[in-house]
Amino acid sequence: MSIAENILELKAKLPGGVQLVAVSKTKPNESIMEAYNGGHLVFGENKPQELARKHLELPKDIQWHFIGHLQTNKVKYIAPFVSLIHAVDSLKLLQIINKEAEKNNRTINYLLQMHIAEESTKFGLSRNKIEELIKQDQFRSLTKVNLVGLMGMATYTKDQDQIRSEFRNLKSLFQDLKISQFSDKPDFKELSFGMSDDYQLAIEEGSTMVRIGSSIFGERNYPI
Question: Which domains does the chain have, with CATH numbers?
């Protein structure tokens, strides 16, 4: 099937309220344009300079999501246009995003990343660290960033019970924060978890945003 057909088939499986982020990292412009011409506008990238180049070269109504670990010195490349930053994992990073957003006279939406996996190699904050962070005056003083939800990556395992448990852990924190901190903030509503291998489980557990690449574009192309 073509890229556009893959997207249509995937979207047909997604319930209302679940957004598909087509993970286009390492993919050429031609592949992204196939998806775009099929009506898809939301794409995820994880390398700031590559994302900046694609933004320059591709249609301006594309909504670009940054989905990887973001280094503070790379925020400047994506701050002028990025629609959503998925993986904010420190106050320092958030302060830099706020500073760059101010320079560009815009507010940047973001998700806090919670560490839910067993692998120590995955990034993210513990539940306690997130709860502490959002109560800090330094956090509350940032006016050019807008927290719209949480993000997490499950352990890479075939154990579906473990994956489900990790997703539930993230959903539990989201629900607690919604009640205790953000009951009057309607745009605190996004839960970004679930990828090609586990997105159906993720949807069952409350994900509102799934990040899917290989099921759309095929296996990744790594530059030589």
Answer: 3-194+208-213 (3.20.20.10)
Q: pLDDT, tens digit, for every residue of 105-115? A: 999 999 999 99
For the chain, the residue count is: 224
Long-range contacts of 18-21 (CB under 8 A, 24+ apart): 18/203, 18/207, 18/208, 18/209, 18/210, 19/208, 19/209, 19/210, 20/210, 20/212, 21/65, 21/67, 21/192, 21/209, 21/210, 21/211, 21/212
If DSSP codes are grouped into helix, strand and coil, which group holds residue 212? strand
DSSP string, 84-139: EEEEE--HHHHHHHHHHHHHTT--EEEEEEB--SS-TTS--B-HHHHHHHTTSHHH
Q: Match 């005056």 to its residue by tokens.
A: 137
* DSSP labels, 170-210: HHHHHHHHHHHT-TT-TT--EEE---TTTHHHHHHTT-SEE
Q: Token pair of 62, please?
A: 């594309």
Q: Tens digits of per-residue pLDDT, 156-187? A: 999 999 999 999 999 999 999 999 999 999 99
Within 10 angstroms of residue 46's Cβ, the number of other Cβ atoms is 19
